[in-house]
Amino acid sequence: MAVSGHIRAKGETMRRLRNVKIVATLGPSSETYEMIRALHEAGADVFRLNMSHGTHDEIREKHRFIRQVEKDLQSPIAILADLQGPKLRVGVFANGSEELTEGALFRLDLDKAEGDQSRVCLPHPEIFEALEPGARLLVNDGKIRLKVESCGADHANCVVVTGGTISNRKGVNVPDVVLPLAALSEKDRDDLEFACGLGVDWLALSFVQRAADVEEARALAQGRAAILSKIEKPSAVDAFDEILSASDGIMVARGDLGVELPVSAVPPIQKRLVRKCRHAAKPVIVATQMLESMIESPMPTRAEVSDVSGAIYEGADAVMLSAESAAGQYPIEAVSTMNDVAIEVEHDPTYREVIEASRTAPRSGVADAIVAAAREVAETTEVAAICCFSQSGTTALLIARERPRVPIIAMTSLRGTARRLALSWGTNCVMTSDVSRFKMAVVASARAARDLGYADHDDQIVVTAGLPFNVPGTTNILRVAPCDERLIFNMENE
After folding, report:
1. What's the structural domain count of the chain?
2. Which residues are catalytic?
């Protein structure tokens, strides 16, 4: 029976009714155990902890509640810690704010004196080091636009291209140059260590500019969390192939991307990046302002619904709620709406046509061939599900890349793998004990498919695994297996 975006199968295990995953940001509107549980039951698969807001004690409490919900509902949940990244801000004004008019001159410098209508401090010498005449500076999410006329090691003389009110500590974007900034601030380093110590599953890196930024974070994480790069700068778009190669996942963060680039450029960039992520078998989240009006309204706009639908049709692994679930008045309704849109889209025959037409993954190795064969068998025979044994999660990601028409069941003995895969398209994770023989893997898979409600006694499933077991990257075997308990029992006792 359908309930709040999921159904309960045998053993009270949660089963989603759609493949795309939902990421919900936690905040003042969603920080209690009761609300986090309600959000998960409504459809949230991943919870985002925004390290820009809240103390470590407050974040620790949210983490504890998530893990308690996971335990109570027997449902693996991924936790994404989103690092703040280097924040560039102007200083303060003597009057609190000033009005800048188009065509006026305005100076940014390192002088810590309070600003006025002619100048203000920009306490970031690294910006001045990188600036050149003609470069743009965008203040307050691009509401104010400045063009550099001349610059030096401690100043930039600008002309106001788009005027408006500039006030204390507004953010600054520099879209035209790669800034010589450290990938991680001191706060980020402290937050990274804290989050890894808690046991989060994913670390999101803000304002990534180059692959080296990702490699620095990976060295600090030391395998304790997967690394997800947020693409929100033109330099990241330019270096995307290298960043994707260095990352475990990607977030298309359309907020800052739409500030630093023309808004008309964002949709094609989104489509291109989503397709590249799928080609690489790495999860991709589409984020920012997806249901923005639901911060204050229980109903979304039709344009927002179309935006969410577009990301799903493109093949994104996940769609994300930010302020809608963190600070909005209707967090449960926002998750439920996103869940309902996903179910509706995935039942549209056009969805399958689009997804299958965009299947361009290479067949370069044994594992690629096995997962492609598993998908083809599932599409041409009466197979109820594809089950894969995966310790590192790689096989499950490869199967998800195929976007099969039947459910994907990832069997693993590693809880961390199960949690990380909660972000991956269509992947339903089941904890299992270690197995040493393929026969026992088949037995465990058949029972899991039945217990989850994906298969009945007279159904068949596809099982993939790697021999020898528990060695990452060895997927090399496929079997079509029955789910009949008598046949399973006989196999078990052979």
Report:
1. 3
2. 48, 89, 230, 288
